[in-house]
Amino acid sequence: xxxxxxxxxxxxxxxxxxxxxxxxxxxxxxxxxxxxxxxxxxxxxxxxxxxxxxxxxxxxxxxxxxxxxxxxxxxxxxxxxxxxxxxxxxxxxxxxxxxxxxxxxxxxxxxxxxxxxxxxxxxxxxxxxxxxxxxxxxxxxxxxxxxxxxxxxxxxxxxxxxxxxxxxxxxxxxxxxxxxxxxxxxxxxxxxxxxxxxxxxxxxxxxxxxxxxxxxxxxxxxxxxxxxxxxxxxxxxxxxxxxxxxxxxxxxxxxxxxxxxxxxxxxxxxxxxxxxxxxxxxxxxxxxxxxxxxxxxxxxxxxxxxxxxxxxxxxxxxxxxxxxxxxxxxxxxxxxxxx
Length: 339
Hints:
The protein is of the alpha/beta class. It contains 12 helices and 12 strands. It is found in: Cytoplasm.
């Protein structure tokens, strides 16, 4: 069940802009142990939501790696998204108008500071495990840097310490597609949706891999010259996002990912990573084109005592959402070694 936490005070962003108030949507399951030492905080990726029991059902749920019978599991929807937390389609209480294009820039640190408000509200003083893939991993990492003694176990999957020019290039190309939509400048929730459909099609190419497309989208008919299977697949994936998201949040969150750099204000990325005290597992995916394994190896090299494991998958970056059994085995072994 989705829950709401309302923070009826000003919330200052890293940019200096102040949100007059903040609402955070979150899902939770399970119960605290007597000392509240069984908290698992899942940080979600770009277009996901707080219902981790839905989109990561192979990892979280009854009988799974993170079973609510043993853990108190929480996932909070991020700032800028469209699933209940304050975002571009929220009403600015100062103006009584929807933010739309006026929604301020959000950084990963802003997202983490919002998590901090919710954590305090829930009376959580300690986190057994913070885990996330992609944008979720960026959040978990930043949190472990900002609060070194808070998190016992940090699990970073298919993520990085700073977003790469390659990744920013993909995001900018997607925003160009949105901006090319003639409706994008309008102040209504439907603005930019055709552009976002094209943007999602672009994104999918970075999330998957050449081999995955050969496995799933190859044609049997060698005489075909049009209406290819993959063409309808790209269109279908774009429509799926259009049916559940909006272009304003997509634009905002892609900008958030671009801004990710744990070294900002700390001199160097390596200095920031050295502040992490959590027992850390870093997981890379062999075929990841968007967050290549070199980025995870860099994390493991500069986080003290971190362990690096690479899983083999032809699903590319999306492997962190698909390879449930491999992830379960790797994470289980990580915990077992500590015992």
